[in-house]
Amino acid sequence: MTSKKFQLCPGFRHLTWVxxxxxxxxxxxxxxxxxxxxxxPPKVTVSKPLKRPVTEYLELTGNTQxxxxxxxxxxxxxxxxxxxxxxxxxxxxxQLLFLIQQNTxxxxxQQAKASILxxxxxxxxxxxxxxxxxxLQQEKAASQTDVDQWLYQRDAAKAALLNAxxxxxxxxxxxxxxxxxxxxxxxIDRRLRDPGNxxxxxxxxxxxxxxxxxxIYIYFTINERDLLRLMGGTRLSPAEASKxxxxxxxxxxxxxxxxxxxxxxxxAISVTPTTGTLLLRGIAPNKDGxxxxxxxxxxxxxxxxxxxxxxxxTQALGYDQQGPYLLVVNEKNIVxxxxxxxxxxxxxxxxxxxxxxxxxxxxVEGVIKAIPGRxxxxxxxxxKAQAAKATPQAKKNGxxxxxx
Length: 404
Fold this sequence. Notes:
Order of helices and strands: HEEEEEHHEEEEHHEEEEEEEEEEEH
CATH architecture of the domain at 45-54 and 307-398: Beta Barrel
Helix content: 25-40%
Largest sheet: 6 strands, mixed
Mean pLDDT: 84
Low-confidence stretches: 1-6, 387-404
């Protein structure tokens, strides 16, 4: 069998010469697509620090205490007859709270009054006899001894009358002590003795406790460094600040900011050597009685006012082992780390005491995208103060400035 050579037809050859260049172009295009193209720099929002007047505050911790606390005690012996309140009630000054058996003390009072009448009669008789015997002695009808005897009787009757009147007053006091009243407006704790019990027998029985919580005290301590800062900013000693009713504010654990306003009214006379702290006390209104004694309180005390402080939003701050820092974009759009010293916090902003000149572009949004030493695409935005409500103390300071 004869073999034949395999030959392409002329049409297929022509098709081959057309397809080969096309395939080569496709392969080249695929190779170009597989090459790495770096992503564009991330977009961040940058702003210049805001200049605004800021009041510097000390933020301290303390607790609330009642302005007056009294233990009601049975001052006379007797059976407890009645209780005129419910446990935990609000009470008024002079309100009757407990009644102790009165009949014994009423009888003692009547007895003392009768003794007064007896002594008055004895005094009248002694005075009459002294007058009569004095006239008889002048007429040589009575001796000097008789006159002296009635003079003694007269003076003794006077003394006995004074003693009887004192016994009456004591009996009246004991009768008054059977009525236990509130010494001030406040809130009474639960009763510690029930009606029918003998109280005041050989001891001063505690019946209940009353707290006066309107106004209310706030006790807190300040360390030596903050104390010197306070004295330098206010130019007053703690005692002078308390006399001038230096403003302060406080907030409870479940409250935002410092909604309760008050003033400083006491400072201890010395710093405690073991802790290096000074005890201070503020006083604040508590008309609704919602602030109870013993609560934890966050205290804010104004120190000084800066007329033009640099502030930035708190979310722009970063922290690491070296301390707080900001990310700044330079003229080549390269991110730089800038260490800063922080001041007080106010309305969502933080005061920058050192580290900024005021003309830097600080990354305020997209901080997580900005890496020191790498480029970014900055979008410049003017920084504006937040519309958040200022603290009551800041409002008070603002009103004071407007009035001045």
